[in-house]
Amino acid sequence: MARNTINNGVTMTGGAEGAPRARRYRVVIAYDGTAYSGWQYQENAVGIQQVVEDVLASLDGAPVRVFGSSRTDAGVHAKGFVGHFHLAKPIPAKNLVRAMNARLPDAIRILKASYAKEDFDARLSAKGKEYRYQLYQADIMPPHLAPYWTFCHRPLDLAAMQKAAAYFVGKHDFASFAANPDRVLDSTVRSIFSFEVKKSGPRYTFIVRGDGFLYKQVRSMVGFLISVGKGNERPEAVKELLAAHLPRTARVETAPARGLFLWKVFY
């Protein structure tokens, strides 16, 4: 007789002897978020999660819930997003990559799939994340870069932005650099492991690593660094805003979504 158990909202079925058992998978996903409402499933828009779940359901013959490593906003991209899920009808991991990519739109790719231990959770098991923000500073923005790079025509002070970025490193209350997520948070304290600002010709890359990030925190931090680079703010203003422990104001601009990538999740 079959036995059903519930694991993270997914029904796991153990059938007769010799029948395949449900397996937990871990996948690394890359996506172009331009046309999507972000990762999270939404009632009135199409998210990456919904598209991936629909493909898995077609392979498994039943609804499949995918749990993601984080949320990403509308228009934000990912190079190393991680998800986990169960399949009632297991498929070899290497075959699963091919099967999913054959059915997914070109904007979404499964880079890697592997079996996961039953206690692996894409979000709760994560030790940290790396985000990268891309900015192109010149008189003209090349059209082919427009979906993935934010444009700035004004010259930027790299040294000032690097100095300001260093003030973010450490454990701080980031309330002044986050938007209201419309849900109750236990804390707005987060730890930033490193924050680099690099330049190569007209291309600036902001690379930040931390244990976790609040809603629009990365885009708010980058937006403020750009203000510093333009000379509108002093680098030391970062310390003042962090020490204030106050909600974000118009002084902290949110950088556009298109320049942001979830680059990697650390476990």
3D structure, described in words:
This protein has 267 residues and is an alpha+beta fold. Helices cover 21% and strands 31% of the residues. It has helices at residues 48-60, 93-103, 158-168, 217-229, 237-244, and strands at residues 3-7, 10-14, 23-31, 67-68, 77-87, 108-115, 128-137, 150-152, 170-173, 189-200, 203-210, 260-266. The strands form 2 sheets. Strands 3, 4, 5, 6, 7, 8, 9, 10, 11 and 12 form a 10-stranded mixed sheet that branches. A two-stranded antiparallel sheet has the order 1-2. Strand 1 (3-7) and strand 2 form a beta hairpin. Helix 3 (158-168) runs parallel beside helix 5. It is globular, with a radius of gyration of 21 Å. The model is unreliable at 1-16 (pLDDT under 50).
Throw out a few tags for this protein.
267 residues; alpha+beta; 31% strand; ten-stranded mixed sheet
Task: Chart the SSEs and their pairings.
Elements: E1 3-7, E2 10-14, E3 23-31, H1 48-60, E4 67-68, E5 77-87, H2 93-103, E6 108-115, E7 128-137, E8 150-152, H3 158-168, E9 170-173, E10 189-200, E11 203-210, H4 217-229, H5 237-244, E12 260-266
Parallel strand pairs: 5-12, 7-8
Antiparallel strand pairs: 1-2, 3-5, 3-6, 4-5, 7-11, 7-12, 9-10, 10-11
